[in-house]
Design a protein that fits this description.
- The chain is mainly alpha-helical.
- The protein has one domain: Farnesyl Diphosphate Synthase.
- It is about 70% helix and about 0% strand.
- The protein contains 16 helices and two strands.
- The chain has helices at about 10-25, 35-45, 50-60, 70-90, 105-110, 110-125, 140-160, 175-185, 185-195, 200-230, 230-240, 245-250, 255-265, 270-280, 285-305, 310-315, and strands at about 95, 100-105.
- Strands 1-2 form a two-stranded antiparallel ribbon.
- A hairpin with a 4-residue loop joins β1 (about 95) and β2 (about 100-105).
- α2 packs across α6 (about 110-125).
Length: about 325
């Protein structure tokens, strides 16, 4: 199967300065525990998710706004996003990363420290929001905070619902895709908040919000394809400790797939993995996932047709 490319370059260019500023803020916070400070430094060196901040900047610019005004909200979502990623490692029992066996923060410092520094990132992130009052009118501040709150609540709800899918070999595509849409709520909040801060009309806000939702869903399915076909370590983790990726979900009506999944829980040999992927190919798991994604790409592009300057957002599909 072909590897899925990542849209890193434009996201890094727009998001890196805000991510670095946000991490600098938490690294400078008065945290009394030397262990906690070491854990925060360790995580900050490795964690480089530029997408949150970049999408807010791009959405703001797309409606003619000044990207500098995005900083407080972007930093809030960068830091709260880091908190969610730390907490996700606890839920997924992720102690190492893929074939390189690089230890996660939980692998290095344990579950309790990971939980608590995740809380610290969340606290620091939410504290950034007060700066919005200095650059936006009160009604916009309320709308931004409401949007962020609703996005994070829906994302949290999705994580809870996804727990029902762990080692669940009876899940239906419709059920899984409902959770995929919920998990993309935070990406919708990034583009929606960027549009609000940029002075967008209600129509532009809604269009960019749905664009963000679809983009988030595309990223999730991109990762599903990558986890299934390009990373056997992530595939075994998905089978044994997490939700199954969509190409496999599409194949669950085949009893041979169910037997092979059960076998892989006990024996994750390369031979067993190859046999599973052959069955997924036979059931057109990749083709069906790819076709769904192509439809979402078309919908996403159509949503940008009424936006003033969507070129940076459209460029994301070229990488």
């Amino acid at each position: 199967m072909p590897e899925v490319q990542h849209a890193k370059d434009p996201l890094r260019a727009s998001g890196a300065p805000l991510v670095e500023s946000a991490l600098k803020d938490i690294l400078g916070a008065k945290i009394g525990s030397p262990t906690a400070k070491r854990a925060i430094r360790s995580f900050s060196r490795k964690w480089k998710d530029y997408s949150r901040a970049a999408l807010m900047v791009m959405a703001c610019k797309a409606v003619g706004g000044s990207p500098e005004m995005v900083a407080p909200a972007a930093k809030a979502l960068v830091l709260s996003g880091a908190a969610f990623d730390l907490h996700d490692d606890i839920v997924d029992k992720s102690y190492v990363r893929t074939e390189k066996n690089r230890k996660t923060t939980m692998g290095l410092f344990g579950m309790e420290v990971t939980l608590l520094i995740g809380d610290a990132f969340l606290i620091e992130g939410l504290s950034q929001l007060h700066e919005l009052r200095e650059i936006l009118p009160a009604d916009k501040v309320r709308l931004v905070i409401k949007t962020i709150k609703e996005g994070l609540y829906e994302l949290g709800s999705a994580e809870v619902e996804e727990l029902k899918l762990v080692r669940n070999f009876n899940v239906k595509p419709k059920q899984y895709l409902r959770i995929v849409r919920m998990k993309a709520a935070d990406v919708e909040s990034y583009t929606r908040v960027g549009a609000i801060i940029g002075g967008a009309t209600e129509g532009e806000i809604n269009a960019l919000g749905e664009f963000g939702r679809l983009l988030g869903m595309l990223v999730i399915l991109r990762d599903d394809i990558n986890d299934t076909f390009n990373d056997k370590y992530e595939l075994i983790s998905r089978i044994t400790k997490e939700s199954l990726p969509l190409p496999i979900v599409y194949s669950l009506n085949d009893q041979r797939v169910l037997k092979k999944l059960t076998s892989l829980i006990e024996d994750s040999s390369d031979q067993n993995i190859r046999e599973l992927l052959d069955l997924v190919d036979e059931n057109k798991g990749f083709e069906r996932t790819k076709a769904l994604m192509e439809g979402w790409v078309s919908e996403s592009k159509a949503l940008l047709s009424g936006i003033k300057d969507p070129k940076e957002l459209l460029a994301l599909f070229n990488y």
